[in-house]
Amino acid sequence: MNRKINWIGTCLGGRYRIEAILAQGGMSHVYLAEDMKLKGKKWAVKECMPLEGTLTSFLEEAEMLATLQHPQLPQLVDYFTTEDGKGFLVMDYIQGPTLQDLFDQQGRDLPVAQIVSIAFQLCDLFHYLHTFQPRPIIYRDLKPSNVMLNEHDQVRLIDFGVARHYERGKQSDTVQMGTIGFAAPEQFSGDQTDARTDLYTLGSMLYYLLSRGQYAYLTQKLLGHIRSDLPEVLTTTIQLLLQENPQHRCQSALEVKMRLRSIYSVPSPLQPEMLHSDQLNLTTSSDKLIVIGSLFAGAGSTFAAISLARILHARQIPNAVVEEPTIEPDLYMLLYGDIKAPKDYAFSHHLVSEQKLSTAASWTDGFTTWVPVHPDGLLSSWHPADTLKLLHTIKKPIVIWDVSTNWQEAAVQELCHSADEIVVLLDASPGKCHRPRSRALFELFMMYQKRGKKVHFVANGNLPGQYRKEWLDALPTAPLCTMPEISRAEVMQAVMKGECIQERPDILERLSDALSPLLHEILPASMWERRASAPKKSWFSRFKQNA
User: Fold this and answer.
1) Could you tell me which residue ranges the Protein kinase domain spans (predicted)?
2) Residue 386: is its pLDDT beyond 80?
3) Secondary structure (DSSP) of 53-88
4) DSSP-based three-state secondary structure for 346
5) HSE-CB for 390 with a 13 A CA cutoff
6) How large is the average pLDDT for residues 209-223?
7) What is the per-residue pLDDT across 227-249, written as a single tens digit (0 to 9) for each?
8) Which CATH code for domain 11-92?
């Protein structure tokens, strides 16, 4: 058993003179120390209690912290061991109260706006950790006492003592740890923890803060029954996070942020005067991620994505069309990219892998920004985290993400968990809809729908008479609308002439009328009420004139 030593007044590591204790717990003590070499410099020195008499966990934490480079995470500057086998981590000293301190000081009643802002920042931090390469990091111990706030209410996440790297294929953790009241069920049941474990702890902490100090596992009450003044989407998101089965929770930190973003305009943490009131700006946020794809090859998701984009363009609504990097390239060719792409345009894999965002030109046509895949396909490996990184670079109110038929790709499923709307194109063909893969995809779409996602089916063509009933019986729900019939020959002829057929006034009007049920679903009322203007001449038409 480790003997407790009073380090106050001693010099550790030949350099750090311990002045006071900052925090203590079962796994570690944290001290305030003065640097004897850099006079006046203060550090936080953490004494780690090794598990089972070894320094393995200490060395793992030190190595993990040394790789992290994020302004809101603790920066490790040194670590050492003593002759009697104790380990010490030296980290930057963060001045400011913990969230628990602030919560108690305010009578356990923080403004909802401030709590949501903290949640936003924690989602960003978890996204960084969960997509960390080469192995994701699972924090596992989120609680108010491990969250610090600076004078600008910027979150700092501290104490990585029970964090671990996620190991794919491993069935359980070596050691089950966490704080009762906030930890996820799998942290004590012997199952492996993953990113969804951190999301459960986020839900537990939000429940605790919003219920003014009650624990979800003790009350066994829905948050909405305790606080009737909270918006339903906030309470249902927390309810989703607290599901016992990880499969039934939100699946990524970005999904949580997207859900909260859909109802809140959250002030920046650099605007503290806006955070200390309950004046939440409830909005009909126009920020939307629309994932669009086909049930099977040739159903027309790319054509539908371009059509939606040009309808939005006609209504002067900024939008972007992104071609999922893992699919077979098509958009670049349809847009005459060899001639019309900006000279210094950077493809999606460059934006993510080479960080060219600050110097790359966007490819815009009126109110639409095009983000196609390189015509030769991916030039490097692509991970699910890269898809989310690419999404963060697209700064448009509406993003239309074309995934073609790649619904079962890990990157696409991660994207669907974060989407506001999912649009599925399908042919009017009972035979194709009865295929085993189609049935499996229908089950996937229904799973998204059960988890609160809006899934819309759009038919690409129609069936007459008796065959229509057979086709509709093969679908989970009837199509919301039907794409107008435009011959493929007419479309390809327009492309060969350098035209975008969706910009022809007659075609645009037909598309707008046919897709109006979908547009009513995916557009806020304020946007839908905008009258479409006559399309301006685009580079398609200018190219035609110069041909």
Assistant:
1) 16-264
2) no
3) G-SHHHHHHHHHHHH---TTSPPEEEEEE-TTS-EE
4) coil
5) 32
6) 92
7) 999 988 899 899 999 999 888 88
8) 3.30.200.20
